[in-house]
Amino acid sequence: MTLQQPALTATAALVRPARRRDRARLFQEIGMLAPAVMLLTIFLVVPFLLSFWTAMTNQPLVPRPTPVRFIGLTNFLRIFKDDLFWTSLWNVSRFTFWVIPVQCGLAFATALLLNQKLPLRNVFRGMFFLPAITSIVVVCVIWGTLFQYPTGPINQVIGFLSGGRIQPIDWLGDPNWAMFSIVLLSAWQAYGFQMIVYLAGLQGIPDELYDAARIDGANAFQRFWHVTMPGLRPTHVFVLVITTIQAFKLYTQVAILTQGGPKSSTETVVHYMVRTGFEEQKLGLASAVSVILFLIVLVIALLQRQLLRRFDV
Amino acid sequence: MSSVTIEQVRKQYGAVPVIYGVSMDIEDGEFVTLVGPSGCGKSTLLRMLAGLEDISGGEIRIGGRVVNDVAPKERDIAMVFQSYALYPHMTVAQNMGFALKLKGQDKATIDRRVREAADILALEPLLDRLPKQLSGGQRQRVAMGRAIVRHPRVFLFDEPLSNLDAKLRVTMRAEIKELHQRLKTTTVYVTHDQIEAMTMADRIVVMRGGKVEQIGAPLELYDRPANTFVATFIGSPAMNLFEGRIADGSFVTNGGVALPLPSDGKGDAASIYGVRPEHLTIAETGVPANVVVVEPTGSETHVLVQIGSAETTLVLRERLHLDPGQPITIAPDPAKIHLFSSEGVRLN
């Protein structure tokens, strides 16, 4: 025992500074993480959890003398009985159904084009990305002008090309055309982001795979089908999920251009939620809408992931 | 199988030339290795042979047919890439059969030929796996399987072993050589590893800066390098070179050390004296030297010694005990001495 003692002491002496170093490093790491964690907690996690609670109360926007009451699932039941909610859900589903192929297709096609060895490639990449960094409000003002009825530029071009046979369309005022118009401008404004994601995906496919396919005898279409498309599977999933989530959150374009009209044909879930919360001042009810929207988006994202995992993504 | 002729082939990117009129004849069934340092143009030349790069000038013939403007798929070649380039979403069998599928072969034929190739490369148990489920060596074998399944006239290998660890590289080297002996398909193999080139090739093409430095059998290049570049590139450790001049029946280095001249008596105008490390021995009489570093490898010992102001390497088969700083006397084998002109061209 007496012989082992110095050895033990020496080991302990070695271990102690190491532990002290580890602890110091841990404190350092916590210290660096703390601001981000704190901000995320205050501005993201707490409001997110609070919305679940608020959704089950009769909380108004402006505090009243009467106390806020817990009312269980009453808000949810009230929403489910409201036809306007179902209309907004139908509209946003319609929007998503149309905007995904238009926006992602445009992004994919542009990315394929800009991935070629073209002169001034980087200039074009910047130009095509420009709408994505332009404020949506500015985009809405521009497209609002383009869509003007009956003398807006789009109507004039259509009239000119059809030799006057096609009458001017009230793009934003006709319930049959309003959502289509919103789809068009939304896809144009946002496709730049998906284009960049697709470009990154395309550049991640090794050139040697294309060389191997050329030697194997694949023509341009076969190379696209057997090398590019499988190589982009993870990118497709990402783009699909992101675009779906973005589409379900459609608000600004509608708020600026149509305010949900005409005849509620462009009413969306988020627009419905904002109106309930800030115009009708029913914060509890609006929170319930936000919870429903969150659950819908979550289910869709999980479903898409599961579906695409089957294709070995 | 087919012969390959490369005649005055040039390549330039814009105004920058990278291959300067390279010519060589590769015989039917021959295994030729293109070797050289990074950037020497060996991979570019191989890609031009495959049709993956355009040719700026000259002519390439495969089996007597000029293929300058022929698409890769119509050249009847198969290529194995450095990164294997296996299609990640296809199984091993699908990878191997892809070229045949594109050719419109029926399923039974594809299946039979894939199994034949799999049998040669011991790949049968892996046929249903995806590339990500394979080790590096297995992927390499699949890449070779994909090449042989097509029964091409020429095999092209672009540094196929570079991504493997040292041990596996040795195994795969032997496998590729054995495969060539079995199939006897004309093969062009690019590598920067001179050991790979020496051990596998019937003939080696040494390239530097887009030009051919020497073409010959491995031992011919080793025994009679055409210039100092080939002399130092082929062989490991590299050949020892001394600058100096011939005076009074011996070669006097710039450091004033007198070295014996070769027994053939050629090379009067020599100003570079070369001797391979294994052709230097410790002798009773000779050139005095001091041991600097001793590196035992097991089978041999590499000894770095100082002769005058120059450092020289010896490779000794015997297990001698040498200490750093120890004075020794070394002597070159007079029959194995290489003399070069001041431009580095072989004289003897």
UniProtKB/TrEMBL annotation, chain A:
It holds the Pfam family BPD_transp_1. It comes from Sinorhizobium kostiense. Residues 89-304 form the ABC transmembrane type-1 domain. It is found in: Cell membrane. It is a multi-pass membrane protein. This is Multiple sugar transport system permease protein. Keywords: Cell membrane, Membrane, Sugar transport, Transmembrane, Transmembrane helix, Transport. Belongs to the binding-protein-dependent transport system permease family. PANTHER family: ABC TRANSPORTER PERMEASE PROTEIN, INNER MEMBRANE ABC TRANSPORTER PERMEASE PROTEIN YCJO. Its main location: membrane. It comes from the Bacteria. The chain crosses the membrane at residues 30-53, 95-114, 126-146, 177-200, 283-303.
UniProtKB/TrEMBL annotation, chain B:
GO terms for molecular function: ATP binding. InterPro entries: AAA+_ATPase (IPR003593), ABC_transporter-like_ATP-bd (IPR003439), ABC_transporter-like_CS (IPR017871), ABC_transpr_MalK-like (IPR015855), ABC_transpr_MalK/UgpC-like (IPR047641), Mo/tungstate-bd_C_term_dom (IPR008995), NA-bd_OB-fold (IPR012340), P-loop_NTPase (IPR027417). It is found in: Cell inner membrane. Keywords: ATP-binding, Nucleotide-binding, Sugar transport, Transport. CDD domains: ABC_MalK_N. Its main location: membrane. Gene3D superfamilies: 2.40.50.100, Nucleic acid-binding proteins, P-loop containing nucleotide triphosphate hydrolases. The keyword Lyase does not apply. Residues 4-234 form the ABC transporter domain. It is a peripheral membrane protein. NCBIfam families: PRK11650.1. Belongs to the ABC transporter superfamily. This is Multiple sugar transport system ATP-binding protein. It comes from Sinorhizobium kostiense.
